Amino acid sequence: MRISRLCGSANHCARISTRKTIFGDVRESRIVFCIDTSGSIYKVWDQICSHIVEHLCKMAINNKALYFNVITFDDYVKRFRTKLVVASYINIQELNRWLRSVCFGTSCYVFPALLASYSHVDAECVLLVTDGLLTKEFYEIQQLSTVCNSRPLYLTLLMNNINPNNRVIELASKLLMMTCCSKSRLNVITIAVSGCFVQLSPIEWSIRVPSKLYGCPNSCYKFVLDSLHKFPNEITGGICPVKNPQTHNLTSQEAMKGKI
Fold it and tell me: Distance from CA of residue 149 to its chain's centroid?
């Protein structure tokens, strides 16, 4: 059965192949999605499910040898399949049903989920989606380089457009550095809520940490924060809007002094 059946029509299939998703441009053929299912994700879960399915369809249209798996994490880690499976019509359809039946936990522990994701020896990359990271996990996260074997981590961080959390950005940038892979990158996605409507807005800002900063968490964070503040804030969906001047004017020097 062809992937185009999931798209509805040939024209819609063509539009999907060029549409942006929250995962950005992923070139690898064997991927693992690692998705946060803590309670705070609930309000955007439908949108995340749609982006996962659409991204798989988008990639499968151009890559007939695409393999994937999905891991969700909250208080527990759950797998869609025990190993990578081909991105076929049936598998994507079953994934959609599985995602829609997810139950949400009270907290999220990312390191066990990353261990499970990178345990797929044939996986070429991991796509992590979360709206926050736990400080108390930082010691365990320091061991990440021993399990990822220089395979990239594409981290998608969901953030409130009104109150961006610089502490979360700091932890995300340090997590990126722990992979010791120059292809790892951080994408920031803004969440806009209007009544019963929720919008996830992929923005053009995406950062890769230079390899010379590996082993220097504070320098890594300074690099990410500087890059973020150089990004044009006038663009719709920008993470540091002018209406929040205290966050907008935060400098990397202030952040390094612990003023976040």
Answer: 19
pLDDT band at 29; cut points 50, 70, 90:
very high
Of 120, 40, 27, 132, give the one whose Cα is nearest residue 79: 120
pTM (two decimals): 0.75
Task: Kindly state the average pLDDT of the residues 86-103.
Answer: 94
Other CB atoms within a 10 A radius of the CB of residue 165 amount to: 17
Euclidean distance between CA atoms 241 and 221, whole angstroms: 20
DSSP 3-state of 162 = coil
Whether pLDDT at 183 is above 70:
yes
CATH class of segment(s) 4-9+28-256: alpha beta
Q: What is the identity of the amino acid at 244?
A: N
Residue (of 210, 211, 225, 209) closest to 257 by Cα position: 225
* Domain range annotation of the chain: 4-9+28-256
Three-state secondary structure along 184-237? Answer: CEEEEEEEEEECCEEEEEEEEEEEECCHHHCCCHHHHHHHHHHHHHHCCCCCCC
